[in-house]
Amino acid sequence: MPRNVYLVGSVPLADAGTVFETVSAALGPYLLTLPDGETGERLDWITWLEPVFAANPAFQLGGEIFQLHSGVNGRRRYGLRLGVSLEEIHFANLFYADIACRSFATFAALKLEGKLPERVKFQVDLVPAHSVLWLFVEENLQRDIDPIYNDAIIREIDKIVETIPHDQLAIRYCIRCVCPVRAQPAEPLWRNKGGDAGKFLDNCHSARRTGAGGRRSAVPLLLWRRWASPRGRAHRHGRHGGLRQQVGHAAQPADHANSHAGAARSY
Fold it and tell me: Is the pLDDT of residue 261 over 50?
């Protein structure tokens, strides 16, 4: 039975152009989408997003230390500066759109030269608020900042779909952290656990998360219908990669069956 190859995560090569050409040469007939490989500083999970908090005037380094596991150094999480309220927090740029547009320019040029299969779409990989806040923000703030950060992800997607032609675009949203799987208990308290992943994901179409002050923000996982056109493609995927990605996730599920049954479907 013919099968397609679906790539997620980082590719340890020099740059996006090298990833596109190398992967296409090896897997071209089996590819429907092709990511830029998260090269350079993005190779190390989501640590490259630290400037989102370090350069944000609402945040400062706090005293809370977060350690993924005993094999890595702890990281100081960020808290709010004295006098800053949740209503004042704003994430102006998460860099996803800037990076995607640069990488797509390379992708489009290589496709024009005939170096990439015609049917292959450019794949943009996004990470939800849960994972990012878990790494960078003090635990007592994570729940309330979650919808604020997710709003910023929505703005990034808006910029991406305004720039990249829909018939050349695929968006993958990493939902490992929100998929209700039987995982080890090293996860934020509001992550969903137990039950059937497919049913949970379907219910998400109408779900909302409420933060401080009654602020409401749809989980971006649920909003692909806002952007996905018949010519475009949006994926929801429960991601478990190689050693680097497994270290990043810290807690692996005991049972993948339910997770992948729901997560592998596309809109």
Answer: no
Tell me what pLDDT residue 175 has: 64
Q: In angstroms, rounded to a whole number, what is the distance separating the alpha carbons of residues 56 and 66? A: 20
Please state whether beta strands 209-210 and 169-174 pair in parallel, antiparallel, or not at all (unpaired): unpaired
- List 82's β-bridge partners, or say none: none
Retrieve residue 115's tokens. 């170096």
Mean pLDDT of 96-120: 97
Least confident of 3-12, 118-127, 222-231: 222-231
